[in-house]
Amino acid sequence: MVANNKIVIEVCATSLDSAIAAEQGGAKRIELCDNIIEGGTTPSSGTILLARKYLKIDLYILIRPRGGDFFYNDIEFELMKADIIMAKKLKADGVVIGILDKNGFVDMKRTEELINLARPMGVTFHRAFDMCADPFKVLDQLIELKIDRLLTSGQKNKAIQGAPLINKLITKANNKIEIMPGSGINVDNFIELAKKTGAKNFHLSGRKKVHSLMNYQNKKVFLDSSSQNADFEWSITDKEMIKKIVSMINKI
Description:
Blueprint (H helix, E strand, L loop, with lengths): L7 E6 L2 H10 L3 E4 L12 H10 L3 E5 L11 H16 L4 E4 L10 H11 L3 E4 L9 H10 L4 E4 L10 H11 L4 E4 L8 H8 L3 E4 L2 E5 L21 E5 L1 H9 L5
Parallel strand pairs: 1-2, 1-8, 2-3, 3-4, 4-5, 5-6, 6-7
Antiparallel strand pairs: 9-10
Helix pairs in contact: 1-8, 3-4
């Protein structure tokens, strides 16, 4: 059984409003990002600045220059370093990184450079791990690099599907790195996932749709081609959903 008083809920927030709602809901840590449809990219410096101003809980910044794979060119790597420097300057508590080589293993040299640049901030390795060639070998690489935390869905689309691998990773890690399940965690599967994995950190977004308050809505023009209504609705973190999940910790 997981020690309830040690369970941490981290919320992936894609806006300042979402980050504030997550804290109000009881989250203990924020991963701040942008462009969630692409799997997340680095948020603007203005967003980081105001998040640090308004939040009392830990604030981690996603360092990812684009969507797509996790093999980056020199310009993209330079941008990642600049974003880490900016995150540190804006007093973030940590960064979330992930770089793979062409063969699906951790790019050790570049990752070590990012870690050294980030310290003394915390460092999480994100779901680039779920695209790696060998999860156990890559886990060893991350432990060697002394990364603090690994975010993973257990190499499945949803963490509940990857629970068996997550449990094995936690056992193998033996407290040398924190293993944090993420992807598709909600009120319906949180307790089951916690019991199956034994994890103490959980990563979720808890989003809901909100709709535009504009009286006039021109739906003849699509700025967002994902759906007909996409320009007049978006997703934010649902404070009440986070509260509900936090309240479920005592049932584990």
